[in-house]
Amino acid sequence: MVWEGSAGLYMRALCVALYVALAASFTQPRDSEFTFILPAGRIECFYQKTEKNVSMEVEYQVIAGAGMDVDFSISSPQGVILYTDFRRSDGMHTIDSTDEGDYQLCFDNTFSKFSEKMVFFEVIFDSPQEGQDDWSQMVPPEELLDYKLEDIRESIESTWNRLERSVQIQTVLRAFEARDRNLQEDNLWRVTFWSATNMLVLVIVALVQVYMLRSLFDDKRRVRT
């Protein structure tokens, strides 16, 4: 009976912990990523809603387009420009403590009149961990089973953080892969074009040389009768 009471108390505490974690996950802003086409001579702005006192990290990369560069800026909900990049192919900025409201992320391609750009960016949030130790005090240490709730919580948090970090790294690597592939395709087209041009020039020069050599040995004198 003592074991059943401890197990029931343990399960109730675990359910409360999971409920708190799920509620926190729904109230906090979610990480996001997006890939879009930025036309020539255009500015595209995106708005990200944030809560107060959370950490927001913004990373972007230009993965296709002539020059592989754009202008970038981040503005606060009050309209203050926090970060600005000029003619950059990639960048990363972190806001340690955000204000509540909508942050503006703008990508500028007005300096390019003919070439559109493909841009990838992601927004990552890291909220402060508050009140996580409160639920672990609901069960006295002597009534726990084989494992402590604190150990389980730390193990789950460590696994979750590593999974999130793995997803972020894989997303960035996919963006790098798309950018390298576009560069290789562009370079392949240039190499093929100039190789064909050089081959055509060589053929024309060879034909001209053959014609000139034949003209040198051609006897144009007429035989008199």
From TrEMBL:
Which cellular component appears as one GO term in the record?
endoplasmic reticulum membrane
Against PROSITE patterns, the record matches this protein to: GOLD
Signal peptide bounds? 1-23
**In what residue span(s) does the GOLD domain sit?**
43-125
Give the matching Pfam families.
EMP24_GP25L (PF01105)
State which residue ranges cross the membrane: 191-213
Describe its membrane topology. Single-pass type I membrane protein
Q: Which domain of life is it from?
A: Eukaryota
For this UniProt record, the keywords arranged alphabetically read as follows:
Endoplasmic reticulum, Membrane, Signal, Transmembrane, Transmembrane helix
The parts of the chain that form a coiled coil are: none
Where in or outside the cell it occurs: the entry states: Endoplasmic reticulum membrane; Endoplasmic reticulum-Golgi intermediate compartment membrane; Golgi apparatus, cis-Golgi network membrane; Membrane
Tell me which family the UniProt entry assigns to this protein.
Belongs to the EMP24/GP25L family.
Please identify the protein, giving its name as recorded: Transmembrane p24 trafficking protein 1b
Q: Which gene encodes it?
A: TMED1
